[in-house]
Amino acid sequence: MKIRPLADRIVVxxxxxxxxxxxxxxxxxxxxxxxxEGVVIAxxxxxxxxxxxxxxxxxxxxxxxxxxxxSGTEVKFDGEEHVILREDDVLAILES
Length: 96
Fold this sequence. Notes:
Elements: E1 9-14, E2 37-43, E3 64-67, E4 73-77, E5 80-86, E6 90-94
Antiparallel strand pairs: 1-2, 1-5, 2-3, 3-6, 4-5
């Protein structure tokens, strides 16, 4: 099954949070925060502009992005958790 977001929405799969700190301290489940980094799974067609035309999305499937901690709507798809959010909620694209 595939998912196709509408308009300027994107589907992001969160990147797994680290189990240990760089110093080797193990982080318990209760102290972990939800990651604000993820991989774009699917992108909508784009935002409808004031002149009625559809703008080109600024992100592509497969890119790693940073987004707001409380942004979007969490959904379960194919047994995995994803976040559906607007393109405006993306803070940055991570490049390697």
